[in-house]
Queue: 2 jobs
Job 1
Amino acid sequence: MNQHTVFGPTPPQTTYPNITSALTACQDHARYSGYTVVIRSTERREGKAFRAYFMCDRSGKYRNRTKPSVKPRKKRTLEGAQLGTATCKTDCPFQLCLDRQDDDSWHLRVNQLAHNHPPSLNAAAHPSLRARDLRAHRVEVTRSINSGDSVRSIISKLRAQGTRCIPRDIYNLG
Ligand SMILES: [Zn+2]
């Protein structure tokens, strides 16, 4: 049950211009391996962030509802990373660490690659990731709709380009 497993290839341990681009790269990487990366915390020194931690969306302890939570419902999210809110927590140890470099770029390294839960088949279909993907195709999708293409054909066209979505995403876009 509590077996630790590594999902897919190691996220690229490279340098990124900022935290957001590193997070996006890790999310893109993770979802095809069956997990979702969220930003967990940043460490600051003299008001300046110098380290950030990315975790699996199943990190953290399962909340015991009989005990009053220290921070009820308010969940602070950083950099628009509103992911994994409704996921069952397994205290997953997966952790990536992002260090600010002297030139203000950010270098990604892996602290713990293994997860303590099975991969999620839905990771690739996380609504917020789908919406983000689809926004990149907004113009072409709108054009297709206007020229009378069926939603089904639009979806299969997008899928061929590596963008996964469901009909509702298309309607939401319009
Ligand atoms: Zn995990």
Job 2
Amino acid sequence: MNRYYLCIIGGGKIGISFAEGLIYKNILEINNIIISKKNINPNFNKFNITYDNQYAVKYSKIIILSVLPSQLKEVLNDIKHVIKKDHIIISFVAGIEIDYIKLYLNNHINIIRIIPNIAIRKGESIICIVNNNNVNNKIINHLFSKLGFMLFLDESCIDAATSLFSSNIAFIAYLMKPVNDLIINKINTNISVSNLLLIQLLKGFISLIKNNKKNIIFDSLINDIASHRGFTVKGIQYMEKKNVQKNIINAILNSYNK
Ligand SMILES: NC(=O)c1ccc[n+]([C@@H]2O[C@H](COP(=O)([O-])OP(=O)(O)OC[C@H]3O[C@@H](n4cnc5c(N)ncnc54)[C@H](OP(=O)(O)O)[C@@H]3O)[C@@H](O)[C@H]2O)c1
């Protein structure tokens, strides 16, 4: 009997964010979810928490694997004896292929790979999905369609997609932090006002690129703003001199060719 609809093995940053998104978007109720962790801490009393992976798996229909790649083997060895034929396994684990999981789980068929990003907790993720084994899309839609934009991919693209759509939230935060600091320092404002200004800046940018179907929009946007010998041109020239675009490309490529 399934006491829970879904278990999340690994109640860390993305596991908890996913659970929060499911609740926030009214997709599941809190009692439909059980989360397993290695160390139980009392601050987690919002969710059903266990340290017993086998218990979580035994009483759930869907199993989310959300541990670090280095922790996966131990988890698979722990749960393999309680996996049933009709269990659906969804792995969030970056860099680990479906075939690897299949091998440890006695050739289990229903395995999907999904890479969300942390905005899943607000229902605004990009959700990269590899479904080689044709697991019923109804189940995927039910769990993920309200949590962001679903992108079905071939497994060969998933590492690049992980950098571009999952890690990139961190890269954007890294790039926006100095902008935010400058807003605070140069406009003499506080964090909540600078936050509003940064959001409006990004909203303005989004409104300008929305529905665009041509790659040249980025160059023409720069041209529209950069008047001859003005502030913008100086900034762009500095970035060109420092190879900023090339360095951004290298940073992203580096992250998934690590
Ligand atoms: N963070 C992201 O934005 C993101 C996005 C997409 C995919 N991913 C992938 O998702 C996975 C998890 O990432 P994360 O950032 O959430 O890592 P994390 O915060 O370190 O979470 C890992 C969790 O796994 C738990 N754990 C470790 N060994 C376990 C075991 N034997 N049984 C049960 N639970 C165990 C840990 O428990 P304790 O807390 O008790 O130690 C921890 O809660 C990674 O493979 C990552 O590549 C992450």
